[in-house]
Amino acid sequence: MSNSLFRKKSIAKIVKDAEQGFGDGHDAGGLHKILTVRDLTFMGIAAVVGAGIFSTIGTAAFNGGPGISLLFIITAVTCGFSALCYAEFASRVPIAGSAYTYAYVSFGELIAWIIGWALILEYAIGNIVVAISWSGYFNNLLMGLGVHLPGWLLNDPSTAFKNFTNATAELASGKTLTDDARQMFQGYISTWNSAPIVAGKHFFINLPAFIIVVLITTLAYIGIKESKKTTNFMVIFKILVIIFVIILGFFYVKPANWHPFLPNGFGGVLAGVSAVFYAYIGFDAISTTAEECRNPQRDLPRGMIYSLIICTILYILIALVLTGMVNYSELKVPDPLAYVFHKIDQKWISYIISISAVVATTSVMLVFQVGQPRIWMSMSRDGLLPKRFSEVHKKYKTPSYATIITGIVVGVPTLFMPMDMMTDLTSIGTLFAFVLVSAGVLLLPKNENRHGGFRLPYINGRFIVPILFIVFIYLMKDRIVTSAQNLGKDSLQEVLFLVYMLIGVILSSLTFIRSYSMIPILGVLSCAYLLIEIPAISWVWFFVWMAVGLVIYFFYGYRKSRLAAQQGNLKI
């Protein structure tokens, strides 16, 4: 059974299937091949420059001060290792499916299913978070125009109840509150009390979040050409706004605010890892459009790398402007960009930023809503999901059924689900994919399907990787001791850290013995470290999610696998 669980698809077979059509009506040739390197770069920027630069950057700056700009560089390098590995795969395996397809080639079917299931966390659940964020930005925009929607149409039940409970406790505590705080708490109470009662319970839904998902899903259903044009327009708009904010903001920078550069030490900078990494999620989404690229082997790698470089430069400049305009301690707010200009009495700029935030999050949703159906389409072609998921619309040339299901999976939860924990779950799914893609490069056949395209540069890691890991051990010596001492105290976070250290020792040793390439090894180690920094409770839910996925695989995918039928292992 173990051999059948890890059966692999050859690159030559994948490319041949793509050229001849996948059979059973799964005709890849039905997809429009219209995307250029510019379109792919814009899609990458669209996926990356979203809620992160308009919201989570504030929390990261609050923890790390001006030094947060260093964390953007560190995170970009980390993502860069994975981006280069993605680029190698995209050049060798120019087929829709992203990390799922790459894992099928390098690790085999079971790991491919696991990563495909994890990608649902990145794309589908990630889009739930973005849609809820969009709703907040959109509501702020409406309020600026004097339009006030009822609170029960803007909140999920859990968040509304939590806000009501906290507000009631704060007002009853007798504490001295600012006028703004008192007004906010009274608003929470008023929202709860004014909500309609349905079946004896207060009724709350996030209607704007649901509506934007329906609209974006419709656009993704209609066609890649329309999605491309819309994405390009939104990217140009938000980049112009960000550049405008950077240039104007520098005139209000006070260099004194950059001192001290690391107010909470490097530990404070690292405390923003989760928030900063969330800002980078999505650059890999363009690999799902491989079959709609004019020249995927050349353009996909370029699009990934170009978008990552451009976004990193923008993030660093924004971080310096924010922390230069006001003291870092003031930036723990939901909308830091709008806040700093409001602080200097430039409210009209805050309004422009609010418009840009709505556009930016819309573009993120569009890219993710385009990406998810194409992963399901690839899994369906392989027999791991029902055939309907790989249906291509005769007129629009899109994976129609998969797009509709994606819309339902994302849209319905936005009505009533809170954002808590979902950001971390999205990060786990993404980092998990990054780790496997980086490791998978080491297992690729050396010369199979080499017809030009991107080639990952080989840098012998025999000495570099072990030395870097030894330095890491020295820097983390206190935590290693603490983790070992707390091992029996049911601390999942410490267990994850010690598992990471064990993996690091094994990979460093193997790299020394076998002279592995440095880039993929550092990609695995750096992304794996970011993984263990995610709160333990999110890992518990991730394991539950994986368990559900494995049940589905063994009851359906394992028996229906087309590769199994081709190899004569099973009948389907």
TrEMBL record:
Keywords: Membrane, Transmembrane, Transmembrane helix, Transport. It is a multi-pass membrane protein. InterPro entries: AA/rel_permease1 (IPR002293), CAT_C (IPR029485). Residues 518-561 form the Cationic amino acid transporter C-terminal domain. It is found in: Membrane. One of its GO terms (molecular function) is amino acid transmembrane transporter activity. GO terms for cellular component: membrane. Pfam families: AA_permease_2 (PF13520), AA_permease_C (PF13906). The chain crosses the membrane at residues 40-62, 68-89, 110-134, 203-223, 235-253, 265-283, 304-328, 348-371, 401-419, 425-444, 456-475, 495-513, 518-534, 540-558. This is Amino acid permease. It comes from Pinibacter aurantiacus.
